[in-house]
């Protein structure tokens, strides 16, 4: 499956750190920022999500919910969320279904790891339509948060 700006974003159902199933359709009526990140507790991933945490009011003011998704287990993500005091959902894509649907999988990640999500950002509007897409090949870089906020302000 591919993600094309202007088309419906692929739905997913994944578990959050509270062991509750969360679907993209649960957010109908709100803008959603989805951030796929490679692995919990790594330097760039922590910095990326801490940036969201520290600016979370900006996103809520733009009528947006933020969701972080990685292939880590929900148990690892729970500890990551607690350690960093994140106030937004982290979802486990342990089976890699959402990562595949959003075409965000590395062929091979660091240390020969397979099945790791690329650092990616997607903005989905309140009607479920993809408005912004950024898939980074370099896991050392972060999404363009200014462009994400501009997109949210324009929808």
How many extended strands? 7
The shape is: globular
Q: At the first level of CATH, what is the class?
A: Alpha Beta
CATH architecture: 3-Layer(aba) Sandwich
Mean pLDDT, as a whole number?
94
Low-confidence stretches at least 5 residues in length (pLDDT < 50)?
none
* Coarse structural class: alpha/beta
- What is the CATH third-level topology name? Glutaredoxin
Please give the radius of gyration in angstroms.
14 Å
Give me the side-by-side strand order of the main sheet: 2-1-5-4-3-6-7
How many discrete domains? 1
Number of helices: 5
What percentage of residues falls in helices of 4 or more residues?
A: 25-40%
Main sheet characteristics: 7 strands, mixed
Describe this entry's structure for a reader.
With 155 residues, the chain is of the alpha/beta class. It has a single domain (13-17, 29-154), classed as Glutaredoxin (3-Layer(aba) Sandwich). Helices cover 28% and strands 23% of the residues. The protein contains 5 helices and 7 strands, in the order βββααβαβαββα. It has helices at residues 43-54, 56-61, 74-84, 97-101, 145-154, and strands spanning 13-16, 21-23, 31-36, 64-70, 89-92, 120-124, 130-135. It has a 7-stranded mixed sheet with strand order 2-1-5-4-3-6-7. The longest helix is centred in the first third of the chain and has 12 residues, at 43-54. The protein is globular, with a radius of gyration of 14 Å. It starts with 12 loop residues before the first strand and ends with a helix.
